[in-house]
Amino acid sequence: EDKVVQSPLSLVVHEGDTVTLNCSYEVTNFRSLLWYKQEKKAPTFLFMLTSSGIEKKSGRLSSILDKKELFSILNITATQTGDSAVYLCAFGSSNTGKLIFGQGTTLQVKP
Amino acid sequence: DGGITQSPKYLFRKEGQNVTLSCEQNLNHDAMYWYRQDPGQGPRLIYYSQIVNDFQKGDIAEGYSVSREKKESFPLTVTSAQKNPTAFYLCASTKGGYTDTQYFGPGTRLTVL
C-alpha cells in the first residue's frame, strides 16, 4: 500500500529560526512529489519535484527530493509568523492519476 | 478571473439527508478531483474524473456519488449511506491527465447535525 509519512507532526519555533520538514514515502510508480501550504482553508501549491537532487527554491522556501532514499525535505529560512500553517506533502502516481497526501506538519512561528 | 469555485462555503445537514456540493472551474482543466479532509489529517481522495462522462473511485468512495456531464463542473453528492460525513471537502483540478499540479478550490465545510 502506498504511504506518505511526514515528520515532525508539529513544530513550534521563533521568528528568524530555520526549519526543516521531512516527507518520506513508500510508493509504487512514482511520478512526482508535491508540497502544499494550508492555512485554515484550501491548500496552496508550493513545489513539485520529479528529479532527484535538484533543489527548487522560492524566496525563503526550498525543497529537494532524494529518490534513492525515498524522501523529500522542505526548508524555510528566517521564518516569519506568516509561515504558520500546515505543510502537506503528496505523492503523485504515474499510473493512477491521483495524489496521496501525508498527514501534514503543523508549524507555529512565534514572534 | 480564472479559478475553482465551491459552494456553499458552509453546509449543515440533518442525518439521513443527501446533499450535493458544487465545484466549478473555468481553467479549461481536463481532470477534476474530490477530497475529504478530517482534522489533523491530509486530504483523502473520494472520486476523480479525467474526462467528461468518465470518473473513477478514489480511496474512500463509499457513501458518495459524482457526475461529470460538463468539463467545467464536477458535483459531489454525499448520500445518507455515508456514516460520518462531517468534514472539510476540497475540489481540485489539473490541466493534464495525471498528477500535474493540482489546484484547489476554497472548500466546503459540511456539518451533520
Number of strands of chain A: 11
Largest interface summary = A-B, 24 and 23 residues
Number of strands of chain B: 11
Order of helices and strands of chain A: EEEEEEEEEEE
Mean of residue pLDDT values of chain A: 92
**H and E order of chain B:** EEEEEEEEEEE
DSSP helical segment count of chain B = 0
Rg of chain A, alpha carbons? 13 Å
Distance between the termini of chain B: 35 Å
Strand content of chain B: over 45%
Give me the secondary-structure category of chain B. Answer: mainly beta
| Helix amount of chain B | under 10%
How far apart the termini of chain A lie comes to: 41 Å
Largest sheet properties of chain A? 6 strands, mixed
Shape of chain B: globular
Q: What's the Cα radius of gyration of chain B? A: 13 Å
Quaternary state of the chains = heterodimer
* Residue runs with pLDDT of under 50 for 5 or more positions of chain B: none
Task: Please describe what this structure looks like.
The complex is a heterodimer of chains A (111) and B (113). Helix content of chain A is 0%, strand content 59%. By secondary structure, chain A is an all-beta fold. In chain A, the strands form two sheets. In chain A, strands 2, 4, 5, 9, 10 and 11 form a six-stranded mixed beta sheet that branches. Chain A has a five-stranded antiparallel beta sheet with strand order 1-3-8-7-6, with no helix packed on it. In chain A, strand 9 (85-93) and strand 10 (99-101) form a beta hairpin. The model of chain A has no long low-confidence stretch (mean pLDDT 92). Helices cover 0% and strands 49% of the residues of chain B. Chain B is built from no helices and eleven strands. In chain B, strands 2, 4, 5, 6, 9, 10 and 11 form a seven-stranded mixed beta sheet that branches. Classes of the chains: A mainly beta (111), B mainly beta (113). Chains A and B meet through strand 4, strand 5, strand 9 and strand 10 of A and strand 5 and strand 10 of B.
